[in-house]
Each structure stands twice: as structure tokens, then as C-alpha cells.
Amino acid sequence: MNKNQKILLIFIGFCMVVVLLVVAFNVLMPKPPVTADDIDVSKRTTEEQELPMDKPQLKHKEYVNIYFIGKNENGEEVYKAVKRQYNKDVDGSKIKFAIYALVNGPKIEEKQKGVYTEIPSSAQIINISELPNKIIVNMNSSYVNGGGADSLYKRLYQLIKTAKLNTNLPVYLYINGQRADVIGEEGIMITQPLSNSSLEN
After folding, report:
1. Is the separation of the CB atoms in 178 and 185 below 8 Å?
2. Which pTM does this prediction carry?
3. Domain containing 118: what range?
4. How many domains does the structure of the chain reveal?
5. Alpha helices in 144-201 (DSSP H)
């Protein structure tokens, strides 16, 4: 072993001793406790700041009431409000959702509970215009034709009650694009905007 090799060996041995001493010092010496002031908030990662919440927020369920017809405990015909779940992100405005649901009629499970409608299956919504100061419900002529005066009164009150319950704006009924002031084969007069007294002439 030459002189250079001996020096290298001594140097390596010295380094190992130093490393062992440093390790022993860190292990044996007590560490001061970490306080909140010692944490550098700016060094947190983006992922830590954007962790999802443990519990997802539950959206509050909303409902609208649609008026069909049924019977009370005495067997008398009454207007019955049927509750339907409503999602404004999917269904749009309450008034549109409610009127379309009304014209489409009761669901099977609602029919099984004795609920029915006087609105003909051929009745269709042409469009519903939501203006800043009023709502216009434009229906085809099938909505006001057939069934007789009694049926026509009932289907109109179904519309009136459903509309008034789902908007604070005045609602007007149009048939084929024309404001409906006289409707049906019997020539029933109707005052507008729609209200519970619209048919009291």
C-alpha cells in the first residue's frame, strides 16, 4: 500500500466518524416542539389547498304543485295539488315546468290514487313566453274544444290554479297566438290576466 492509498483510507475513516457523530447527535439530542408559528403556509402545495370536502353538499330539493282533479273523502270533485320534484338547472323556470307537467297530465301512480285531468290529450302548448312583466301561455285550439262547458271550466281552473301558484307575474292565455277572451263552442267569456275570478261573468 503506497502513501496515497494510506491517506485516502484515513480520509474515508475520518468522514465515517464525522457522519456517525452527526447521526448520534440528532438522535440523542431532544428536538424543540413545532408550533403553529413555525409552519410556512406559503409552502403548502396547490393540491393541499384544493382537497375536496369530506361530505358533499346536498342540494335542497324543490317542488312545484300542479292542479289536477280528484275526489275528497265525501266523494266530491275537488282540485288536487300534486307535488312534483323540480330542478331549475334542468327544468328551467317553475312556471314552464308546471304548465308543461299540467298539460302532459297525471303520472300512472297519480292516476292510481284517483287523480285525473279535464285537459284533452290532444291539447298542446305552442309556446310559453316569459316577459319581464307577464307570462303568455299559448295553447292550440284543442285545449278549449270539446267536452262541454263543465269540462272547459275545470280545465281552465286547473291552468289558473297551477299558474298562480308558480309565478307572481300576471298570466295570460292565448289560443293559436290570439288572446283568449271568448273560448269554447259555448262562447264562455274569460277576463285576463288569469285569476280565480276570470270565469265569473
Report:
1. no
2. 0.68
3. 62-189
4. 1
5. 148-166
